[in-house]
Amino acid sequence: AQSVTQPDIHITVSEGASLELRCNYSYGATPYLFWYVQSPGQGLQLLLKYFSGDTLVQGIKGFEAEFKRSQSSFNLRKPSVHWSDAAEYFCAGYSGSARQLTFGSGTQLTVLP
Amino acid sequence: DGGITQSPKYLFRKEGQNVTLSCEQNLNHDAMYWYRQDPGQGLRLIYYSQIVNDFQKGDIAEGYSVSREKKESFPLTVTSAQKNPTAFYLCASRGDTEKLFFGSGTQLSVL
Q1: Do residues B68 and B54 touch, judged by C-beta distance below 8 A?
Q2: Do residues A101 and A2 touch, judged by C-beta distance below 8 A?
Q3: Using CA atoms, how far apart are residues B108 and B85, in angstroms rounded to an integer?
Q4: B99 pLDDT tier (thresholds 50, 70, 90)
Q5: Residues B90, A109: Cα–Cα separation, whole Å
Q6: Which end of chain B has fewer surrounding CB within 10 Å, N or C?
Q7: pLDDT averaged over chain B?
Q8: A window 58-77, beta carbon within 8 A of B
Q9: Is 70 exceeded by the pLDDT of residue B4?
Q10: Beta-strand (E) ranges in chain A?
Q11: Which residues partner with A45 through β-bridges?
Q12: Distance from CA of residue A105 to its chain's centroid?
């Protein structure tokens, strides 16, 4: 089955440290991949998306993600984390004509002062 | 301002009761979606609609029903057949791009 997997349930980093959140996908064709962020009790906000072309995509709030076909990964990165980045992050994707997003189980990010 | 609105923010259901969650959008989007979110399980698709008067079951449609009589509205009914309805429900819409716009969600709890 086509799916998206986030292996880390919870990650804690110190403010100012770098961040990498992992996402792995299993799609036959090149997928469309997304990263969303969710604050408590709120909806989801799109951080960035990858469809094709340049494998390093830039998003909002200083986030970036790199599509690596050889590793079936689309990891989210940020060079220096701010306290306001504490939230839950979801990787999502779909492939081909199935325009239904499949979401990973999410990674909860805690930022220490 | 254009956006997608869900109401109510909190909803309580009694045993055997049907409840309806509202989702309205003024973005002129054709496609609308309902997701259920449980802790540690991410978002799971309940129903989606690509166009008015048409909708399709998602991965966990049992115990839910929807209608799409107007482009702007996609209400979700949680029926008494849904035995574990406590969850956070998110509505989303999509226009010509691949970006989903989400509402702020409805937390449903059982009394």
Answers
A1: yes
A2: no
A3: 7
A4: confident
A5: 21
A6: N
A7: 93
A8: none
A9: yes
A10: 3-5, 10-14, 19-21, 24-26, 32-38, 44-50, 56-58, 64-68, 73-78, 87-94, 102-103, 107-112
A11: A37
A12: 11
Q: Which of A9, A43, A92 sits opposite B40 (nearest CB)?
A: A9
Q: Which amino acid is at A110?
A: T
Chain B residue with minimal CA distance to A34?
A: B99
Cβ-based neighbours of B29, under 8 Å, separated by 6 or more = B71, B93, B94, B95, B101
Residue B62 to residue B85: CA distance in whole angstroms? 11
**Residue B20 token pair:** 């309806």
Peptide bond into A79 cis (omega under 30): no
Question: Least CB-CB distance to B102: which of A41, A43, A49?
Answer: A43
User: SS3 sequence, chain B?
Assistant: CCCEEEECCEEEECCCCCEEEEEEECCCCCEEEEEEECCCCCEEEEEEEEECCEEEECCCCCCEEECCCECCECCEEECCCCCCCCEEEEEEEECCCCCEEECCCEEEEEC
Distance of CA A77 to the CA centre of its chain: 8
Kind and range of the H or E run holding A97: none
Tokens of A52: 């094709």
Facing residues of A58 across strands? A64
Considering only CB atoms, B42 lies closest to which of A34, A51, A90, namely: A90
